[in-house]
Design a protein that fits this description.
The chain has about 425 residues and is α/β, with parallel strands linked by helices. The chain has 16 helices and 18 strands.
């Protein structure tokens, strides 16, 4: 069955879509289902718009020889992606971890592209649908694949590894992510470690961040590993020369610089260097690739607005990434300083506790104006005897009357808070 489906996929010039609005003609239409949609009902429409075939697990309306009926479209879609991946005898690197996955992936694209044809995850397509999409889009001339894998529930990393079949892999760190699903840090570590388990079982190479105590401990049981770290013994060991205004690492007489800030990004850079060396790249090429990467999309961006320098990291947030950002910001000596933090989502029963802990740390910052925004952070601010803001609009209104000037500013929050909206007021 899979051989025949793959033959039809090739007959479509390996073009496919999950959205009828993007059909240009000749594609394979994948009729996925979700809680609020059922693309099976759109299969005939897809064929009418020009799709060559439609992969379905329900037939709505008349029979059509171009309908490929299977038991489960999502499972078949994932199996097709794995089948396509197996056509390649190239390194396939899986990038997981709690924080910094996308930044590390983008750094790897920028550096590895100096020497190889790289296929990689677009954006953060790192789940059970995004990963198969990425694999099926892999061109036949690819020389290295970099696939980001994410999780918010137990078992997802193992499932994605079974689809990707990575030959190499890295976990950037273990932090307090998606605690609503994992419960605590131990739960996060257990879920993320499935990547190392897969690589260990299939004789793959794991890259281990020795600067993360949990990962360093995990690494001890791995048969095939390469370690990296900042100011700690490792196969690739770097000194942190500077983290602001940009990260600079030193190794013996070699310096690596970047367009990123903070010690957390120093680890992402060290990871990138270690991986690139494994694939035979020299320091000059690696440095050139690192310098080409300029962060965007509200991730680790240094933005100048008028006289203000803004550290914009508003794509996502959890307690670990919040703490790292605050600790970095605390080391900025220039004044005045402002911090704007938005609620962290998906923390479940520990949400109140974690928001209170981050709020306490924020108010410990010396000579810093602190604005906490959202239901959870405003409650935490009030508990600590400070003013909080339920809505971002209230902060924007305040700034219209009290705009910062010649200031350093940190903006961070979960995606749903849209903290980047503050930029226009700064």
């Amino acid at each position: 069955m899979m051989e025949e489906l793959y033959r039809l996929f090739n007959a479509c010039d390996r073009r496919f879509t999950t959205d009828t609005r993007t059909i240009s003609g000749g594609e394979l239409f994948i009729a996925l289902k979700g809680e609020k949609f059922n693309a099976n009902t759109m299969a005939h429409h897809a064929l009418e718009r020009g799709a060559a075939y439609a992969l379905v697990d329900e037939v709505h309306g008349r029979e059509d020889p171009r309908l490929i009926v299977v038991g489960d479209v999502l499972q078949t879609f994932q199996e097709l992606a794995r089948y396509h991946r197996r056509q390649f005898n190239i390194p396939v690197l899986a990038v997981g971890g709690s924080n910094g996955k996308t930044t590390t992936k983008e750094l790897l694209i920028s550096t590895l592209s100096e020497q190889f044809r790289v296929h990689a995850t677009a954006g953060n397509f790192n789940n059970h649908i995004g990963v198969p999409i990425t694999l099926l889009q892999m061109p036949l001339d690819s020389e290295i694949a970099v696939i980001e894998i994410g999780t918010n529930a137990f078992g997802e990393i193992a499932t994605l590894c079974a689809i990707v079949e990575p030959s190499h892999g890295v976990l950037t760190n273990i932090g307090k992510e998606h605690l609503e699903g994992f419960g605590d840090l131990e739960g996060v570590a257990r879920e993320e470690s499935a990547l190392f388990d897969y690589l260990n079982k299939h004789h793959g190479l794991s890259f281990v961040n020795n600067s993360d105590p949990i990962l360093a401990n995990m690494g001890k049981r791995l048969a095939n590993r390469r370690t990296y770290g900042i100011d700690i013994p490792a196969d690739d060991c770097f000194e942190l020369e500077a983290e602001l205004p940009v990260v600079r690492l030193r190794e013996a007489n070699t310096e690596f610089s970047s367009n990123l800030q903070g010690s957390h990004n120093a680890q992402n850079i060290a990871c990138t260097i270690s991986i690139c060396r494994t694939f035979g790249m020299d320091n000059t090429s690696i440095q050139h690739g690192l310098s080409r990467y300029v962060p965007s999309n509200n991730r680790s961006q240094l933005v100048q607005k008028g006289s203000n320098q803004i550290l914009l990291d508003a794509y996502n947030a959890n307690p670990s990434s919040m703490l790292a950002a605050l600790n970095t910001f605390d080391r900025i000596e220039e004044l005045p300083k402002y911090v704007f933090l938005g609620d962290m989502f998906e923390l479940g029963d520990v949400s109140e506790e974690e928001h209170l802990a981050i709020a306490k740390r924020a108010f410990e910052l010396q000579h810093t104006h602190v604005y906490l925004v959202g239901d959870q952070f405003s409650k935490a601010a009030n508990q600590l005897g400070h003013k909080g803001y339920d809505q971002l609009e209230a902060v924007i209104m305040h700034l219209s009357h009290h705009p910062p000037s010649n200031a350093w500013i940190l903006i961070k929050g979960s995606r749903g808070m849209k903290m980047e909206s503050l930029l226009e007021s700064l």
